[in-house]
Amino acid sequence: MLLSPPLVLQISPLWDTYTGETLHTLQHAHIVRAVAFPSNPHPTVLATGGAEKKLRIFDLSRSSTSSTASSLPANGSNTNGAPTTPSYEIGPGVHGGTIKSIVWGSDPNILVSAADDKMIRWWDLRSRTPISVFELDGLVGSCELDTNSGAAGTLSVAAGKTVYFFDGSETMRLLKSVKTPYEVASVALHAESGRFVTGGSGDTWVRVYDYEGEKEL
């Protein structure tokens, strides 16, 4: 399955990459900035977030035959004939800024969101409430899970002039943070080589660091 590029869409189609068929239409009221599937070979749910400041969970196993938005035809289908997909919101009113990233870890009940309110939140989907919150030093540039560093992986976050590394198996357990002299747009960890890579937002440089020594190579 493939989700259309989320940065410019309010109605996001979900495509079958083999047939080109539009499988689902994900209805939103504003621009979508982040999407995530659970770690499952055949996922039946999908999380989205964006400028609405709403974390939504879509049930891909169901389709609605009635539209919830005036921009769609009365039968609930988009112009390609794909039905809209029902969703529910996690933590209404909690996010204070655009949701920039969503990460689904090894536990299907736990979801991580990173937003422009400089907060990372860990959510329990069973209670639909945040179970932990971590305040960042700046706006989120990137947030991703490196699954090569263990079964649960390591959550790598770039925000302001700092990169953060969290234990993927324990909610909000910070392994380390590394300060940089520049604004960091993105970070990626390669645990096997003991290195991480950053991209700056104010220049064209990509920098490689030693994870343990925290020094630029």
Task: Give the SSE layout.
Elements: E1 2-3, E2 11-15, E3 22-27, E4 32-36, E5 45-50, E6 55-59, E7 87-90, E8 99-104, E9 110-115, E10 119-124, E11 129-135, E12 140-146, E13 154-159, E14 162-167, E15 174-179, E16 184-190, E17 195-200, E18 206-210
Antiparallel strand pairs: 1-2, 2-3, 4-5, 5-6, 6-7, 8-9, 9-10, 10-11, 12-13, 13-14, 14-15, 16-17, 17-18
Number of domain modules: 2
Strand content: over 45%
Main β sheet profile: 4 strands, antiparallel
The CATH superfamily title of the largest domain: YVTN repeat-like/Quinoprotein amine dehydrogenase
The average pLDDT is 81
Helix/strand order = EEEEEEEEEEEEEEEEEE
CATH class of the largest domain: Mainly Beta
Q: Report the end-to-end length measured between terminal Cα atoms.
A: 38 Å
CATH topology (level 3) name of the largest domain: Methylamine Dehydrogenase, Chain H
| Structure class | mainly beta
| Helicity range | under 10%
Given as residue ranges, the uncertain stretches (5+ residues, pLDDT < 50) are 4-9, 65-80
Principal-axis shape: globular
How many H/I helical runs? 0
Count the beta strands: 18
Q: Report strand order across the widest sheet.
A: 4-5-6-7
The radius of gyration over CA amounts to 18 Å
CATH architecture of the largest domain: 7 Propeller
Structure characterization notes:
The strands form 5 sheets. A 4-stranded antiparallel beta sheet has the order 4-5-6-7, with no helix packed on it. The chain has a 4-stranded antiparallel beta sheet with strand order 8-9-10-11, with no helix packed on it. It has 217 residues and is an all-beta fold. It folds into 2 domains: 135 residues, Methylamine Dehydrogenase, Chain H (7 Propeller), CATH 2.130.10.10; 81 residues. It contains no helices and 18 strands. Strand 4 and strand 5 form a beta hairpin.
